[in-house]
Amino acid sequence: DVKVTQSSRYLVKRTGEKVFLECVQDMDHENMFWYRQDPGLGLRLIYFSYDVKMKEKGDIPEGYSVSREKKERFSLILESASTNQTSMYLCASSLGLAGRGAANEQFFGPGTRLTVL
Amino acid sequence: GENVEQHPSTLSVQEGDSAVIKCTYSDSASNYFPWYKQELGKRPQLIIDIRSNVGEKKDQRIAVTLNKTAKHFSLHITETQPEDSAVYFCAAKGTGFQKLVFGTGTRLLVSP
User: Which of A60, A108, B85, B92 has the fewest CB atoms found within 10 Å of its own CB?
Assistant: First the structure.
């Protein structure tokens, strides 16, 4: 059973703080993703990674960076948090193209609701 | 890049009725179309998906249809039940990296 966990369910930070959101998956998935979810806007991709130390920009990367030092862990970093980054952040993972089974299904973590004051 | 539009944004039905949610996509090279269900306070979970070499797929009360020519796909839920109440997201994936582009979501409310 795939398990994707995120370090915090709720987080409150102040404007200008550096914020780290951590995501860990235990199924040896190659691909990992960070989304933000806002009412009426759906899920928007911030960054994704298809291998250790590899990263690709998604649709809304501005103000964010990521780190993938180990296959199971993908971190999202807000360099200087701003109020417009208040949102629900969802991490997901999926098997790579060479994987077996439902190679394209993305498995989501429980989400981190971040509030920036 | 890919753009996915989803309609309606909200849908209210009576228990036992059918519900249909429609999505259109822009990239004709897209080849994978999943649907995710997100119950209140929970994570999105895949409920059904379809690949571009298939026109229709069914799983019990849920079905998805794909029209590649018109570049649209739809989710059909028959005999709706209150536990079907949730937000449903469609998505599309092009070739290459496993990057999904999601629609904006449909809030389905099934009244007893």
Answer: A60
Q: In angstroms, how far is CA B99 from the centroid of its own chain?
A: 17
Q: What is the CA radius of gyration of chain A?
A: 14
A75 contacts chain B (CB < 8 A): no
Structure tokens that stand for A92 in this block = 């997901």
User: B46 and chain A: CB distance < 8 Å anywhere?
Assistant: yes
- Maximum alpha-carbon separation in chain B: 44
pLDDT digits (tens, 9 = 90+) for B53-65: 889 999 999 999 9
- In sequence order, the 6+-apart residues with CB closer than 8 A to the CB of A80 are A16, A17, A18, A63
B67-79 pLDDT per residue, tens: 999 999 999 999 9
Residues 6+ apart with CB under 8 A from A57: A47
**Which positions in chain B touch A59 (Cβ < 8 Å)?**
1, 101
Distance (Å, rounded) from C-alpha B98 to C-alpha A45?
A: 12
Place of tokens 């897209």: B30
Q: How many residues does chain A have?
A: 117
